[in-house]
Structure formats: C-alpha cells, structure tokens
C-alpha cells in the first residue's frame, strides 16, 4: 500500500509539546528541511506502491530524510537509526511533529526501500539537493552550463584478494552450506585448509614462493574435490540444486581462472563477483577493487561551493572518454539545463557541445584557459566524498548497490555544502546585527536567510 501518514499527525497529542516549539529554528537541519520540497518524492515514488495490497508503507519523507542524513554525515544504517531516537532535530527533519521514543522502522527497512526505488529513481534525491541549493542561494542555474567531469574508483567493502584467501573462503562457504542442508561430505577440508592458508601467507612473506604456491595448489585441489562431492550428492534433489546453483557457479569460476586472466572474467571476491581491479596510476595505491564512477561538478565555484551535478557507476571499467556522453546526459536530466562546455582529463567530442581536455592548445581562448585551470578543482571534491561520505567504501550489495551508493554520495556532498552555506549566512547575519555601524546591505538577501 502507499505510505501512511505519521501516527503523530493523526493523533491529537494534547498534552505533548510539538517539536517546532522545542527545537531551535535557526539550527542548520531545521533550515535545511524548509528548503527541501518533500512533495517531489511523494509524486516521484508514489507509483511504486500498490493501492490495496499489503500493509501501509513507511512515510516517504522518513525514508528519504534518513538516507540523506546517512550520506551527509557518513553513518551506517544502524547509526542513523540510533541518531533518530537521540536527536529531536533529526526527527523534525524526517517530518515528525512530536518526539518519538520508539523507532518506526527496522534497519532492514532501509535496504528494502533502496531496492524498491532503484538507482535511476534515486537521482531524484540528487536533483532535489541542487534545487534546495538554488532556493537557498548557494548555486545558480548559470553554474550548470559549464561542468567538469572526471572518473574515480568506488572501492567495495571487500578484503584484499589473494588466491589462498579466495580458495579458503570457498571451502568454508561450501562446507557451511552442506551442513545447513544436511549433506554428508567425505571430508570438509576446513581444518587443513585453514593451516594451508596460514602456511602460504607465511612462506610468501619469507620469500619462499615455490613452497607457497604448493600450498595454494593444495587448496585448489581440495576446493575442486569438495565442489564435485556436493554436485554428485545433490544431483537428484531439485531444491538443493537450486540452493547451491549460484554458489557452485562462483566456485567453478574461481577454479577455472588463472593468474594471467584479466578483465571481467577475473574473480576478486566470492560475495561480490562484480568487483573489478582498476589501476589509476596512484603511487600509494597501485590497484583498487571496486567499480569506476563518473563524476560531474560545476566548473565555476558557486557561492556555496562546488556542487555535484551527476554521479554514475560505470561497470566493466570502460575507457574514461567513453563515459562522457552518458554523464552529460545525466547532468542535463537532473538539472534541466543544457551543458554548453565540459572540461575533463580525458574526453571525446560530443555532438552539439564543446569538449575541452587538459593540455589542449588549439582553439583555446583566455576565458577557456582560465576555466581549464579549474578542472583540477574536482579532485578535492572526490577526496571529500571519499573521506566525509560513503564513496570511499561501498557496503551496498551488487551492481545496483554500486549505482545507488554513487548517487547518494553526491547528494550527501551537496547537503554538506548547503549546510555549511546556511551556517555562514547565519554567522554573517549575526555579525551584521552586532556591528555598531552596520550598512544597509549585509551582502545577502532576506530570502537566503529564511
């Protein structure tokens, strides 16, 4: 069923104080909530719910607000749920009218909501952060016409892959699933596999590569025996075959791969087979394991900072120049403004637009040269999203999780800039009011303050 209204809006809470009478209306979260048009999400996501089936869904504003706060302050699902119970400002931001002493949702409800919305519709959150920034005076529509586009790696929450580690994890996974389904094995290899993996790590560290490779070959042999034993014993059981199908497929892929394999065929994680190995030429981190992400920001610095206009995950590790057309299309879809110029480190010419790349000499005017020097300003934006947001480590599952996390990381960055902008406006207003000889214009409008 469609989302229900908050219970606190339906009941007559005569003996309880309303949140708006308790909290400070000058608080950044309170002012930020007034800038966001929450009805946009009701209209955009309303078609995803059946009219007369199941129990009423959780309020859309509650789920949207929790995800925005989560990515604005780099919190986990559990942490944002705990903060909801602790802070009246968070509850007011989520649309509550009275303070709630119990959590209206389970942590897993956030996972199910993300799956329901999907990556494409999640762009509405990024678009609304830009619209709120426009209402607050932090950015103007003219800043959307010239953008800077670059790519980075969104690392997945996986351990550093090694052959011995992957083979040992495969043995543990199959043995655990066999015990769960009541399958009697000839030998589980769990104990000897653990010792073999430890020996392989110790020998590699000591420089005895050939002896370490012998332990890895043993692990591969044991994993193959275990997979064949389970395959024989579930041959006549359709239910067990369905339960083991995905896991055995990943295990067989692991057994087939070689050291020289590259690209999409290489397996780096059992629980996240979509993980890719990407090298960006960094001295500190030679290889990163995750997915490539394309990022578009404003080229000129807006009053509130450099806002993110588009975020896209790029599965398959495509060439950077091939991601340009799709990224510009997303920017125009989110902002509603046609991009006139784009600046990036690697690029190709796109139809109807002027694309400039770093170190380009021909056809460069002084204005374009000055804007090209702004291209490197996207690097600190990427760094902030990785340090202060969830772009530095993605915990969401699957390819859809990669796309959703990238979009929400951009929305969280925009909200951090907008929150800082509102704090600066408030400080400027207080300083102007406390000045002995204040001028008629403090440098900002009354609309921006309220």
UniProtKB/TrEMBL annotation:
The keyword Transcription does not apply. The keyword Amino-acid biosynthesis does not apply. Residues 18-116 form the Transposase InsH N-terminal domain. Keywords: Plasmid. InterPro entries: Transpos_IS5-like, Transposase_InsH_N. It comes from the Bacteria. Coiled coil: none annotated. Pfam families: DUF772. This is Putative transposase for insertion sequence element. It comes from Acidiphilium multivorum (strain DSM 11245 / JCM 8867 / NBRC 100883 / AIU 301).
